[in-house]
Amino acid sequence: MQFTIEVGRYSPEGTYAENAVPGKPFPAPWDRSPARRYQTYTVDLPEHAVVLDALIAIREYQDQSLAVRCACRSAICGSCAMWINGHSHLACKSKLSAFTKEGKTRVESPPSMPIIRDLVCDMKPFWDKHLAVKPWLQNKQPVPPPNEEYRVSNASMEELIQEVSCISCSACLMDCESFAVNPDFLGPQALAQAYRYAGDPRDAETKERLAEYSKPGGIWDCTHCYECVTQCPKGVAPLDQILKLRKMAVDAGFTHNAGTRHADAFAESVRESGRLNELTLMPKSVGFFNIVDQIKTLPSAFNLIRAGKLPPLIHKKIPGVNRIKTIFERVGGRFK
Ligand code: SF4
Ligand code: SF4
Ligand code: FES
Fold first, then answer.
1. Which of residues 72, 88, 121 is at a domain's end?
2. Which ligand 3 atom lies nearest to the CA of residue 71?
3. 81-84 sheet: strands from edge to edge
4. What are the pLDDT digits (tens) for 187-230?
C-alpha cells in the first residue's frame, strides 16, 4: 500500500533538499518554532504500518539525512512523540491508514518545543519541569528497618496507578495550550507526577509540595483545555490529577492565590445570580487591594472593550435563582 508523508524538516545549518518547500508559520500562541520546510515522500508499506514505520523506511531507503528519535517501537519508551496532523501522538502507536487525510499524513516537531533537527525536539523544558516538582519520595519517619517495608493500604496505592503509568513522552506538554502561552507553566506531566508524590501516604512533605505547586505557574495556571487528557497515550489524564491537587491544596489552607480567588468568585457569582458576572471576575481573582496586579489587567480590559466584548454593567439574576442555591447546598463543600 502506498502512503504519502509530508515531513517538517528543520536544518540548523539552513541546508535543505530542492523539493523541500516553506510552510506557513505557526499561528500564535504556537509561534516559538523556527521556520521549517516540508518535504514529501512516498513509501510502500503494509496496511497495518504505523507512522514510525514510514519514517524509518524513509531514513533507511530514501533519505539518510532525516533525523527522527525512537527506540522501543512499542509505545513504552516515550521517545517518538511528535506532531502528526497538528497534534501530538506516539509515531509508533499511530496507524498510517487512520491518520491519512486527503491522501497524506503530515509529521513535524511540535512548535511549542525548541527544535534540534527535523523531527527531534529539545526535551529540556520537559525535564526541567519534571525535576521542578521533586519527583521522588521524601521518606516519612520512622523509615522501616532493613528487610521491612512501609505498610500502606492497597486502596492508597491503587489511587496512584494512573500516574505511575506515565512514560514521560511529553505528548501532553507538546499540546498544552497553557504551556504554549506561558513557558513557565509546570505543565501536565510534571503536575501529574506532583500528585503521584503528594498523594503518596509514604511522603513526608505533602504540605510543602502543595505550597510550592500553588504558586504562579503551578496548579492554578491550567486552563482546562483537555488536550493532555485527549493526547496522553497511557491514560494518565493529567488534568484529573491537577484537579485533585487543587482540592488537596485548598483543603490544606493554601487559598491566598489568584487561582482559588478565581474559583471562589466564579462559584459565588453563579450561586447568587445563576450566571457568571464577568465584570467582577477578574478584579476578584486578582484581589481588590492588589493595585499593582489590577493595573496589569487593564490592557486586557481595554482589549475586551475594543472587541465589543464588555460584559453588561448591570448584572441581573436569572429567574428562579433559588433553585441554583439549592443545588449548591445539596452538593455541599466549600461553596454551599
Ligand atoms: S488541561 Fe491544563 S494541563 Fe492539560 S493541556 Fe490543557 S491547560 Fe495544559
Ligand atoms: S502524562 Fe501521558 S502524555 Fe504526558 S508524558 Fe506521561 S504518558 Fe506522556
Ligand atoms: S519508539 Fe518508544 S514509544 Fe515510540
1. 121
2. 1
3. 21-22, 37-44, 2-9, 105-108, 81-84, 87-90
4. 999 999 999 999 999 999 999 999 999 999 999 999 999 999 99
Domain edge (last residue) among 251, 283, 305: 251
Per residue in 62-102, pLDDT (tens digit) is 999 999 999 999 999 999 999 999 999 999 999 999 999 99
Q: Are residues 212 and 167 in the same domain?
A: yes
Show the domain range for 245.
124-251
Q: Looking at this protein, which amino acid is placed at residue 53?
A: D
Number of domains in the chain: 3
H or E segment and range at residue 128: helix 124-132
Distance 151 CA to ligand 3 centre (A): 35
Cell numbers given for 209: 509540595
Residue of minimum CA distance from atom 8 in ligand 2: 169
pTM (whole model) above 0.85: yes
- Report how far apart, in Å, the C-alpha atoms of 199 and of each of 10, 14, 85, 175, 250 are: 41, 48, 36, 26, 14
Atom from ligand 3 closest to the CA of residue 91: 4
* Residue located nearest, by CA, to atom 2 of ligand 2: 232
- 314 to each of 102, 195, 273, 286, how far by Cα in Å? 50, 41, 12, 21
206 with 170, same domain? yes
